[in-house]
Each structure stands twice: as structure tokens, then as C-alpha cells.
Design goal:
The chain is mainly alpha-helical. The chain has two domains: 148 residues, no CATH class; 84 residues, no CATH class. The chain has eleven helices and four strands. The strands form two sheets. It has a two-stranded antiparallel ribbon. A two-stranded antiparallel ribbon has the order 3-4. A hairpin with a 6-residue loop joins strand 3 and strand 4. It starts with 10 loop residues before the first helix and ends with a helix. The relative contact order is 0.11. This is HNH nuclease domain-containing protein. It comes from Streptomyces asiaticus subsp. ignotus.
């Protein structure tokens, strides 16, 4: 999981979303869910609103339209962070929309929306907060550990350590290691093209959270703990080079 910068919604979409929200608001409370769901799935609204929303979310997402929960590049759904079934009044709220893969959205998260004792969401919204304040990524095993109640709840609800994800993150880690070495060789030879290809490969691959976690850990006092197993000092030292960090940090 990685921080995402939300873009501003175009005026035309703002107006259309507001119109639909007003329709849901005017309905009787017991009718709002069915109405909101029907409007969201209606062919006209899919064309006029949902498809443009998905396109904007794809522009916001890192890598190749990666899921904003697991960071795999399988994203096809507009997820309602606060589920439609929980709060139909937020169905068309741009601040409530994230890009998600079908597995995260439908097979895991669904309508689950845990709250803490104060009634605040126990799920991480990557457009509002830094996931790394709540989650720690083990570079050796590719698995996340929850650092806070919010991190642990997000880990469980979204299934962030499910099935093939840890192995895929280890693969992303190895790609980072190979690419930073290639970047350094290009730098030594003055080959700017090779340097640019190495940076682009890291930035465009799935699981952008892995590279960002490695970059953050590299400059912390206990960096060698995170990089301890078999990444070696070379990768760690390269990830500390200001020029490379400026090209990769999000």
C-alpha cells in the first residue's frame, strides 16, 4: 500500500455527482441503498460518470493503474472506501472513491468497514494518510505486518498477504535491486538512456510500494536491519544517492 495524491474532479463531473447525491438524499432512508446502487450501475451513469472516474483514478494510481490497496496491476473497479451499503449518501462522493482490483474490492473488502471505539474508520485511506505509519513491509518474505490497529485491520480486511502477493513483492524487490545496479553502471559510463530506463522500469512495475518502502528505509538509522538478509550493502548505498532518490521517490 502506498500514498496516493488525489486529483481535482472536473466541474462537469462534480455537478453530475452532486445531482445524483441529491436524488439519493431526497429518497426515504430505507430506499436510499437500492436507489444509489441502481444509479451507480445504470448504463447511462456508467458512461457519464463511472468510466471518467475510473480513468481519473487510473491516472492517480502508481505503476500501471495499480490497485490502491494491494498495488497489483489488476485494477478494474471503482471502490467505495466507505461501502455503498454502509453509507449510500457517499456513493457519488469523489473523496470516497479508490481504484481497486476485483480481489481486494469484491472478494475481500466487500461491505466490511470496521470502526474504532470513536467511530472512526479502521481502514487506511491512502489518499488521506501515509500507509507506512500503519504497515511495515518485510523485504525478506514480502509480507506486511500491522504496526497499529488500523494497519492490522487493513491487512485483514484487504487480505494484503494473500496467496501470491508476498512472492510478487519479493520479485518487485529483486527488480529494484537489479535496476539500481543498472542505473549506477549507466551513471559511471555517462549513459543517460540506461539510467532513464532503469528508473522507468522501477516506477512502472507493479507493487510500487516495495520500491518506496526500500527508499524510505534506506535513510533510517536502522536501515541495515531492513536490508539485512541478502540484499547487500550495494543496494542500500545506491538507494541513498540523492540523484536516484529524486528520480524515484513519490
Amino acid at each position: 500500500m502506498i500514498r496516493v495524491q488525489r486529483v481535482e474532479l472536473p466541474r462537469q463531473l462534480v455537478a453530475h455527482a452532486a445531482e445524483l447525491t441529491e436524488r439519493v438524499t431526497k429518497a426515504e432512508p430505507e430506499e436510499r441503498y437500492d436507489l444509489a446502487r441502481g444509479l451507480w450501475s445504470h448504463t447511462t451513469q456508467r458512461r457519464k460518470l463511472v468510466t471518467p472516474l475510473r480513468r481519473l483514478l487510473g491516472q492517480m494510481a502508481h505503476g500501471n493503474r495499480c490497485c490502491m490497496y494491494c498495488c497489483d496491476d489488476l485494477s478494474t473497479d471503482v471502490d467505495h472506501f466507505e461501502p455503498l451499503a454502509v453509507n449510500p449518501l457517499r456513493t457519488f462522493d469523489w473523496l470516497n472513491h479508490l481504484l481497486a482490483c476485483t480481489t481486494c474490492n469484491s472478494h475481500h473488502k466487500g461491505d466490511r468497514f470496521p470502526l474504532d471505539s470513536a467511530g472512526e474508520p479502521l481502514l487506511i485511506d491512502p489518499t488521506r494518510e501515509d500507509p507506512y505509519e500503519h504497515l511495515y513491509l518485510g523485504l525478506e518474505n514480502g509480507e506486511y505486518t500491522g504496526l497499529t490497529d488500523k494497519g492490522r485491520a487493513t491487512l485483514d480486511v484487504c487480505g494484503l498477504n494473500r496467496d501470491e502477493l508476498p512472492e510478487a513483492r519479493r520479485g518487485a524487490r529483486d527488480v529494484v535491486c537489479m535496476c539500481v545496479s543498472a542505473w549506477q553502471r549507466g551513471r559511471e559510463k555517462g549513459n543517460e538512456r540506461n539510467m532513464a530506463v532503469a528508473v522507468r522500469t522501477i516506477r512502472e512495475q507493479p507493487f510500487a510500494d516495495v520500491a518506496q518502502f526500500m527508499l524510505r528505509q534506506a535513510v533510517l538509522p536502522k536501515a541495515r536491519v531492513a536490508f539485512a538478509f541478502d540484499l547487500g550493502d550495494e543496494t542500500l548505498d545506491l538507494l541513498r544517492i540523492p540523484e536516484l532518490r529524486a528520480a524515484l521517490l513519490i
